[in-house]
Amino acid sequence: MTWVIHILNGVAYGMLLFLIAAGLSLIYGLMKILNLTHGTFYLVGGYIGLTVMQTTGSFILALIASVLAMALLGAIIERFFLRRFHLDELPQTLLTFGFLFIFADLSLWIWGGNPLMLDEPEILQRSVPMGYYAYPVYRLFLIAVGLAVAGGLWWFQEKTRLGTMLRAGVDDAEIARALGINVSLLFTLVFAVGAALAALAGVLAGPVLSLYPGADFEVLILAFVVVIVGGLGSLRGALAGALLVGILDDFGKAFFPEFALFTVFVPMAVILVLRPTGLFGRR
Amino acid sequence: MKARVWPFIGAVAVLALLIALPDILRPYYVGLATRMLIFALFAMSLDLLLGYAGLASLGHAAYFGVAAYTIALLVLRAGVDSGIAFPAALVAAAIIGALFAPLALRARGSYFLMITFALAQVVWSVAFGWRSLTNGDDGMPGVTRPYFGWSLDNTTSFYYFALAVIGIAALLLFAIVKSPFGRALRGIRESESRMQALGYNVWRHQYAAFVLSAFFAGIAGALYAYFNRFVGPEYLYVVQSAEALIMVILGGAGTLLGPAIGAALIVFLEDFVSSLTEHWVLVLGVIYVLVTLFAPRGLIGLYVDFRQRRALK
């Protein structure tokens, strides 16, 4: 039974990672930007959710407010800053690193240095019996949300007109533009959606992992690992990578505490050596 | 003629200033200057890979940190003389580079960046996790400075030691960059296929650049271990790698002077701004964004643009 619980924990954590990595991966796939501000959307999104939750008491409102705020921030960063440096890697790196610093310090200013916990919604504050243990329902809820988002993204990408345009843009942005697809709008849209997904992860993580300065960077690195393992630009890869990293991380912490990070980084290095483009990445 | 004289005069003036520095500044600032020099070398070593070979590494802290840890482990765990540990540290950094290079060079662009990042994180997780050997995140204090007939224990003498080592390393880097090998690297950066067609062994050039880059990063790391008399896993962490990358980009990739200036500037700003306000991270972030907007080619790029515009008038 312990094993089942560890796997469930790992999957729940993996789902949070998926929400972050999916945006990172989509943004890279379409715009070839390694967005170092992505962890910031997670942390600031989580903090905004926390504040809204404390003032209104509603978890749903917290989710909506934080998702909208980060989508707007993402759109602004893409539209007014990153766009000037399209396909120019070095300025993009410097710019997104700058924003990482700016928002890290601003949120330290506003929300302080102590870890803050969000309250989970009342309806989910219980647990289900599982063998000798009681398993918190909230984690099962995380898994459900992750699966729903994965399904939604898949449906969007494969079945909708906008999704078709997105795939065309990922394959070849220039040809897509020539075919009359508004690729510029697509860029802003994808960046906003990526930011919104990260914000969603931030609010959802609040009751489990707590929010603290530096979480932006930690999450960014793990999301990096996920897209490295799964392959840049692939949703399937982000999901597979997130589940793998989530489970490995949980098992590592539980069974080899001294080498907890080793259990994540070594498999990543091995996969990269065997497949430099990740499990589902294309050259 | 004029164009050749001014850089020479400039170099002599800078050297004179660097030598006179301990007489002008208080010891605290001599220490700060030492750190600026060390990171200038670190940034230049990365630029050999990023600016000349066109390979952006996000794992350069690995070689920096491995050299530092080699010194700490040899001195503190094996009782080896601190001076003898120095060449060993450089060899260790170069060996790690030689091992990582074949793996990283399988990819280009963002994938190269991520593989170097991944490999460096493995090294970091070893230093972080293997507590019985490395003390984990507590780090290893008590690293002694080498003794070559005179003591390096005061700030000024260590400054001169670092200046001499870094000066030699910088000259070597300039020589490498100006050599046919350096020119070939730039050619490869512009077009791998064309250089291949011209008969250059592209992979071997990139491999050599990778190992050399690791070696010079190792010099910086070894000096930093002496300077702080301490090593910790943060030497190996991605923040250190990212900072080196930012230093190169801020100064201007593809020149050696640019990254050195970028490094010195960032080390100075971190110290200076953090003494003025606790929100120095915010200030640095704003500076990064402004530099990107107004000098996307780095500070050296800004200067080159300025020169060109003046020449056109």
Tell me about this structure.
The complex is a heterodimer of chains A (283) and B (313). The N and C termini of chain A lie far apart (41 Å). Chain A has 11 helices and 2 strands; from the N terminus they run H-H-H-H-E-E-H-H-H-H-H-H-H. Chain A is globular. By secondary structure, chain A is mainly α. In chain A, helix 1 packs parallel to helix 5 and helix 2 runs parallel beside helix 4 (89-111). Chain A has helices at residues 2-31, 38-56, 59-81, 89-111, 137-159, 161-171, 173-178, 183-209, 215-230, 235-255, 262-274; strands at residues 127-130, 133-136. Chain A has a two-stranded antiparallel ribbon. Chain A has one domain (2-274): ABC transporter involved in vitamin B12 uptake, BtuC. By secondary structure, chain B is mainly alpha-helical. Chain B has one domain (2-240). Helices cover 79% and strands 1% of the residues of chain B. Chain B is built from 14 helices and 2 strands, in the order ααααααβααααβαααα. In chain B, strands 1-2 form a two-stranded antiparallel ribbon. In chain B, helix 2 (27-52) runs parallel beside helix 7, helix 4 (82-104) runs antiparallel to helix 10 (202-228) and helix 8 (180-190) crosses helix 10. Chain B is globular and about 60 Å long. The model of chain B has no long low-confidence stretch (mean pLDDT 93). At the A-B interface, helix 4, helix 9 and helix 11 of A face helix 5, helix 11 and helix 13 of B.
Provide a quick synopsis of the model:
The complex is a heterodimer of chains A (283) and B (313). With 283 residues, chain A is mostly helical.
